[in-house]
Amino acid sequence: MRLRGRKGILEALQLQPELVVLDAEPYKGRWRDFFGNDRPIHVELGMGKGIFISEMSVRNPNINFIGIDRYDELVRRAGEKAKLLWQERRGEQPSNLALARFNIEHLENMFADSEVECLYLNFSDPWPKNRHARRRLTHQSFLDKYRSILNKKGEIHLKTDSASLFEFSLNSFADEGLRMRNITFDLHRDGILPERVMTEYEAKFVGKGMPIYRCEVIVGQEALDGQ
Question: Annotated catalytic residue: which of 23, 125, 190, 225?
Fold first, then answer.
């Protein structure tokens, strides 16, 4: 994937240290220092233009949110969206949100053990060819990373428009002995509920009448005990 960004994009991102994190590894085990508090941390892997993570941060001020993407241009767009949304809704700059430029293949270098409470996998690349299975974000190799960084309340929330990725993911979760809940093969069948935050892709797919697949995966022991 190649994105054509604006000239000077990196320089612009460097001027936003309160929101944009260009070098995430030094924060491993220290994200409380970035946010200035010990609130739970929720992370979206592959945030795209940041619509979902920005909306979640506005709606949930007692949770710290981190959106991750590897492309400067998407981080830039996400930053613009976040600032605009926060100004419209709260009249201030984002206070519980970080936008990190990072390759999620190395997620273990960004977070310490038990540092994250929830991971969002929203419309990840399905990598449909069998030879690319290891690149799917619900492959065993990624699940091992997730279980390491998730804490005792840890959960994974998955949404996709890909039936094949959803089937693969359910099997991966089951193979790893992970419990699932709220499994649905058509999330918005009965209408779009206002409490459900949608991504840009999701809104487009729903507008075309396509089903959205979703499930929650329970990882942490406290989350399991609360079932």
Answer: 125
